[in-house]
Amino acid sequence: MSSQDTTRNTNSNRRDFLKASAAVGGAVATTLTAANAVHAQGSDILKVGLIGCGGRGTGAAVNAMRAEDNLRLTAMADIFGDRLEHSRNILQRQIGDKFAVTEETSYTGFDGYKELLAGDDVDVVLLCTPPHFRPAHIEEAVKQNKHVFCEKPVATDAVGVRQVMDAVRVAKEKDLNVVSGLCWRYDYGVRAVMEQIKSGAIGDIQSIQENYLTGTLWHRGRKPDWSEMEYQIRNWLYFTWLSGDHIVEQHIHSLDKAMWLMDDVPPVRATGLGGRQQRVDEQWGHGYDHFAVCYEWENGAKTFAYTRQQSGCSNNVEDYVMGTKGSAKILRHSIEVGGEETFRYRGPKPSMYDVEHKELFAAIRSGETINNGDYMCKSTLMAILGREVCYTGQTITWDQMLNSENDLSPPVYQWGDVEVPKVAIPGKTKFV
Ligand SMILES: NC(=O)c1ccc[n+]([C@@H]2O[C@H](COP(=O)([O-])OP(=O)(O)OC[C@H]3O[C@@H](n4cnc5c(N)ncnc54)[C@H](O)[C@@H]3O)[C@@H](O)[C@H]2O)c1
Fold it and tell me: Residue 129 C-alpha to ligand 1 middle, in angstroms?
């Protein structure tokens, strides 16, 4: 790995990935054996690769290595050599003998993910880059017969969501596991309170309030030798093509719980408002710092979703569920009926980040495949719908959103200039 790798140009673009995906289905029959071989030999070492070696990726590799003894981290890829190096140093210390990454299995640049996925060095891949790259990475991982753990969200536009929907369908046909980083679905307390609600503890759900009200996040500055592309990818939170904006990048955790409460039936339409008041300088890209969205379901139920990233304000992260008989607070794991707490989960609370990987590797060993593809795509699209109603000021239906042709990808993936989009103005910005 040389420092030059980090500035290598590639000319691949997402439209090419989409064209290539048409061929994936045809390969299914001939590659089934390769995927099944992984869980045929239950005690073999499983080789794990990491793509996107930042905070979450490094953490996910540690979580994965805790899942069982017979695992090795064998390959790593990050677009930037310095980020990969930093993560390698941490992982070498934290996972000890399970660290088996070499110079030859360390990849950088836009196409590093392809090189990592091409070889036999990896059975399972952890996809932890900024969300924009997820559709191409999931598609390639499935094409190369890898089991997948993929962080949330899985795309930043509907074109990307549809690409992931196709890839998870192929994964199902190939018996490949796809575990989503929508981690609350792997939390014992959240599972317990959801089970109570689904067995009727609060009656029928009438409304849900989703709060994700927090402060501001990191900014990684600007160096004179960085191109605009490098600057944006390093500061990906503030560029919608990369992060989806914070309603997609962060509030998805809440929206996913609303989707789960509604049995993964999507809302029919949404209306909302949002904007930026604190993060107005150039360094914050073109994202908003607050969103408020009302999602409506066919049966009349509504979710009121609020998210804010502003400092100096009151913070609150909780899911409030109002039913015909009672109410629930999901993160508190509690149910109230008639003003009394009738249920509170107080059982074991292993880290949900560890549980994701324990269940993934157990499924690979047993052959009982997990595929979280359906809800991870729906929850991502629900978050994108929320962003679009706020950016445009329009009421937008689920079907319009699902069929949107708005492709946020840059024309080409290479170091150099890339557009800095204007801040969306409701009533002026058009829905595409
Ligand atoms: N489930 C959770 O609780 C949770 C928590 C934090 C982050 N996340 C998600 O994890 C993902 C990563 O977030 P993070 O906090 O680790 O960000 P980060 O910026 O710390 O890490 C992202 C890494 O990906 C690398 N990268 C960027 N583009 C790449 C590409 N095309 N190919 C390879 N590597 C590339 C970056 O250089 C960086 O090292 C995001 O989708 C985020 O939403 C989930």
Answer: 4
Distance 54 CA to ligand 1 centre (A): 5
Q: How far is the CA of 78 from the centre of ligand 1 (A)?
A: 10
The answer to whether the CB of 242 is under 6 A from ligand 1 is no
Domain map (residue ranges) of the chain? 3-184+355-372, 188-348+380-402
- Atom index in ligand 1 nearest the CA of residue 183 equals 1
Pocket flag, ligand 1, residue 413 (CB < 6 Å):
no
- Domains 3-184+355-372 and 188-348+380-402 in one fold: no
Give 397's strand partners.
269
Interatomic CA distance for residues 14 and 372, integer angstroms: 23
Q: pLDDT tens-digit profile of 38-66? A: 443 556 999 999 999 999 999 999 999 99
Task: Say which amino acid occupies 305.
Answer: A
3-184+355-372 fold: Rossmann fold (3.40.50)
CATH topology of domain 188-348+380-402: Dihydrodipicolinate Reductase; domain 2 (3.30.360)
410 lines ligand 1 (CB under 6 A): no
Given a contact cutoff of 8 angstroms between Cβ atoms, the answer to whether 220 and 234 are in contact is yes
What does the pLDDT look like over 72-110, one tens digit per residue? 999 999 999 999 999 999 999 999 999 999 999 999 999
pTM as predicted: 0.92
Q: What is the DSSP letter of 331?
A: T
217-226 burial: b if 16+ Cβ within 10 Å, else e: eeeeeeeeeb
How many A from CA of 55 to the centre of ligand 1? 7
